[in-house]
User: Which sequence fits this backbone?
DNA sequence: TACGCAAATAATGTTGACATTAATTGCGTA
DNA sequence: TACGCAATTAATGTCAACATTATTTGCGTA
């Protein structure tokens, strides 16, 4: 497959999403991943049309696998297609990102409550390592922000710790891609504050104490804070 | 399209799900709906393989639209496909249905909290009508159960009342089909108890009072009760 | 009999062509 | 110039054939 899009390769950023490296790489799954990343980075703009004929020529593939890829992206909530009219990339308005965070709040606070019950000690050790890495990053860079990838790694670990297939799928496959897309394309949302690290620590503490209620409350707060921050910043930007 | 499957037409039961009747019915969307209903009713058995060649012959369509339909069903969590191996209908184990209800609990309790804020008086009137119908059904049949369709109608109305696209999609498109499938194929789970009606009334009361916290708690209880009931009945059945 | 390997069979993956529908262009008229 | 309609163009929807990969069958051997 000749990729004519300027997007090249996959950063570590995206790899964290796919825990199982796909052994049998079918063409349509390759197209799915390429387009997914191009949409998240904004290389393919929000609201733009995914023309089958144009893309199939650009990427040098037939329309069959391309159509399947578009269906896959639809399942990730990244595109929306209308019969006889084609598919368009989702536009993330302020209203939508706030709704996304409401859904995330509901699912991820439940996820961490389940994680407090279901995570084993190996999982918890891994969480410690991730937080230590965040601490290390802060001290070494004497900064006030932790990078987005590191933030995702922590949350993904917690989500998987719930051991609930439905919740894991809903969050990682249908909500987080949208969140990554939004954050990647809004510089002010790309990194997390030191407050986030403190909250991560509180979440980990609750999990270690096997306290689902505390874990849930803490996670809910954590996500509400992030939501409010987005709301504030976006309104500021609109008033400029 | 010649439907060779014994399943014929769509009952009111299924229609309640699709608020917008699709005007431009493309072949692949027809196939999707036919297969979806056949899977929910159990006409196509859990765990069975959706062979493209066999189905395309049976339904007298080419494999193209059929493959797209299978992708759509995958997005509804009704089938799971493995590259180079094909798609199989999901098997709803006790563990899975409990996980589904955990996800539902998280999302729908949030949905009703949002509905308490966002529903308008017309929406609320409609909820009253739905509950009145349930009351009427009970008195006329002097029974102790309300039919599943009536239960779904109430919950769908509340979910849509949240006005949150992401939550609506996650619940109606990725969780409720699984729940319908489970309930349809487990006679003991097909109808709801009179307790459910009482709880519906409490939920409606909370919405009318514009009390998101009360609404959320009540809905959570309602779903937890349903989950526990399923757990009890399934364990009983296993011990027989 | 049980096991493993190779041939045969059937499935999924992919492609290009055709059919049908939507979008565009350009002409004519008010 | 602005508007509406018809012809053209281009897009999406569908199909049948081919390519590639799994699965099955059946033979031979331990």
Assistant:
């Amino acid at each position: 497959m000749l990729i004519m899009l300027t997007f090249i390769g996959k950063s570590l950023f995206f790899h964290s999403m796919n825990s199982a490296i796909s052994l049998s790489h079918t063409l349509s799954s390759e197209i799915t991943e390429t387009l997914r990343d191009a949409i998240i980075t904004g290389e393919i703009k929000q609201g733009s049309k995914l023309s089958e004929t144009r893309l199939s020529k650009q990427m040098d593939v037939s329309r069959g696998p391309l159509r399947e890829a578009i269906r896959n992206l639809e399942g990730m909530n990244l595109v929306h297609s209308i019969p006889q009219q084609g598919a368009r990339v989702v536009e993330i308005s302020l209203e939508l990102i706030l709704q996304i965070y409401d859904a995330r709040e509901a699912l991820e606070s439940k996820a961490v409550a389940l994680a407090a019950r279901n995570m084993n000690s190996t999982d918890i050790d891994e969480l410690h390592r991730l937080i230590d890495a965040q601490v290390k990053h802060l001290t070494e860079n004497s900064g006030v922000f932790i990078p987005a990838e590191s933030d995702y790694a922590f949350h993904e670990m917690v989500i998987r710790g719930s051991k609930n297939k439905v919740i894991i799928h809903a969050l990682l496959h249908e909500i987080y891609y949208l969140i990554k897309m939004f954050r990647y394309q809004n510089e002010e949302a790309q990194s997390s504050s030191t407050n986030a690290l403190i909250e991560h620590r509180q979440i980990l503490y609750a999990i270690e104490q096997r306290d689902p209620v505390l874990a849930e409350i803490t996670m809910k707060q954590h996500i509400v804070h992030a939501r409010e921050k987005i709301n504030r910043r976006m309104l500021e930007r609109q008033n400029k």
User: Anything to note?
Assistant: Chain A has two domains: 12-89, 94-238. Residues 24, 51-53, 63, 67, 83-86 of chain A lie near DNA strand D (CB under 10 Å from a C1').
